[in-house]
Amino acid sequence: MEFWFDFASNYSYLSVMRIRELAPEGVVWRPFLLGPIFKDAGWNNSPFVLQKDKGAYVWQDMPRQCAKYGLPWRQPSTFPRNSLLAARIGILCEAQPWMTDFCERTMLANFAEDRDIGGEQCMAEILTALGQDAAAILHAAQTDENKARLRERTEQAKARHIFGAPTFLVGDAMFWGNDRLDDALAMTLSSPQSSSGTAR
Amino acid sequence: MEFWFDFASNYSYLSVMRIRELAPEGVVWRPFLLGPIFKDAGWNNSPFVLQKDKGAYVWQDMPRQCAKYGLPWRQPSTFPRNSLLAARIGILCEAQPWMTDFCERTMLANFAEDRDIGGEQCMAEILTALGQDAAAILHAAQTDENKARLRERTEQAKARHIFGAPTFLVGDAMFWGNDRLDDALAMTLSSPQSSSGTAR
């Protein structure tokens, strides 16, 4: 199962935090940026900002969802946060054994600790806490080569017709939203040949 | 619990069909029209039509959801169908003991039988099958007084900040989407004073 998510997306937060227990292996991490996809739709911001009533609802829904899943929650004072740097680190490190830890800690920083995940300081602290060489990773994440990888990833998202996050791809089947994680996992288990990123 | 829905809304179909078993009593039916709400958002059609990738996803999601709930499914050849007449009948008859039957049969006509629920013939057949005086109801549904009731209902929806359907209101708490029906029912059961339409 490919797990496409944006570090700025609050519903992606729920799935990132649930996926270690639900799918301890077989998850192909696909960090990407929603911004360019929203821009193609004619939106200059998250629909949760542009659509006032929907946005207000989301901040009513999130604490209830977090309570249901036993997750901490603190409404970010800035939404959506800039997830560019986190996505660049994510795409650089997505095959590392500590990818799940990095994603969980970054999501918690954004949605439980109200920290600015867009800044180098927050990212460096998380990487250091994971025992990694933060300076080296921050440098590598911001090379032209890695920037191009993230742009290519977002183009892949468009080519796969992804319009929101989180999105789960099982072969050609798309599941959109944290509410579909269980359905996506059920399909993954019933069709093991589709369980890893065959559609790259 | 107030259950706000549009007969043209495919995710409302799922909730209409599930609600008899899940909540045999205590449901306050609130048929309304999404169109004027979408229009206020600047959209001249359903987002499932305007946003191509999301729309394509919905027709992939619906058969899976229907299979999960054991519901019949046939993608409507016209989407969204005109739900004005059905909504006028619904608001006229929402307190009748056969309201659940009317809603289920109208939804099945739209989403399992690909029938034009916007026409008088389909509505008359459903009403007659329910043992009702179809001609009298069709007449009463289209009086100025009843038309005004539906317009007022849609204004109430805007005042309650409803932006989509189905929407479940439990007191002041809003739950959006068929995926939140269980959560809304859980809150209804835990706060029985909020279980009927106190917020009219």
Automatic annotation (TrEMBL), chains A, B:
Keyword Isomerase set for record: yes
Recorded superkingdom: Bacteria
CDD domains with a match to the protein in the record: DsbA_HCCA_Iso (cd03022)
Keyword annotations from UniProtKB, A to Z: Isomerase
InterPro entries in UniProt: DSBA-like_thioredoxin_dom (IPR001853), GST_Kappa/NadH (IPR051924), HCCAis_GSTk (IPR014440), NahD-like (IPR044087), Thioredoxin-like_sf (IPR036249)
One MF annotation (Gene Ontology) recorded for this entry: 2-hydroxychromene-2-carboxylate isomerase activity
Alphabetical list of SUPFAM superfamilies matching this protein: Thioredoxin-like
Catalysed conversion reaction: 2-hydroxychromene-2-carboxylate = (3E)-4-(2-hydroxyphenyl)-2-oxobut-3-enoate
Keyword Transmembrane helix on entry: no
UniProt domain DSBA-like thioredoxin: residue ranges: 2-183
Gene3D superfamilies associated with the record: Glutaredoxin
Catalytic residues of the enzyme: S9 (nucleophile)
Residues forming coiled coils: none
EC number: 5.99.1.4
Biological process per Gene Ontology, one example term: glutathione metabolic process
One Pfam assignment: DSBA
Family: Belongs to the GST superfamily. NadH family.
Name of the protein in question: 2-hydroxychromene-2-carboxylate isomerase
